[in-house]
Write a structure and sequence with these properties.
This protein is of the alpha+beta class. The protein contains one helix and two strands. It is rod-shaped.
Length: 83
């Protein structure tokens, strides 16, 4: 088993390193590069998800404030009418 440490994350990969001989070092470098690329893509996806989540929360807050304002206006309009 090969363990690769990339930016405080641990990636464990199982493959026969000993049978690769002198090519194992180059393969490990390529494997580490690919792991870094995939971790970068994963980090971008998480950042985009967080951004969309915060945008949805902001739009919900705006909609909620708008609904409360309409409700207050409707209550004032009804209170202004005397039966």
């Amino acid at each position: 088993m090969v363990t690769i440490y990339v930016e405080s994350r641990t990636v464990r990969v199982r493959f026969p390193v000993l049978s690769l001989g002198r090519w194992s070092g180059a393969l490990l470098v390529r494997l580490q590069d690919r792991c870094e690329d995939h971790l970068d893509l994963l980090a971008q996806a998480h950042a985009a998800r967080r951004s969309r989540r915060s945008e949805r929360a902001r739009s919900f807050d705006v909609a909620q404030q708008r609904a409360e304002a309409h409700q207050r206006d409707a209550i004032r309009a009804l209170q202004g009418r005397s039966f």
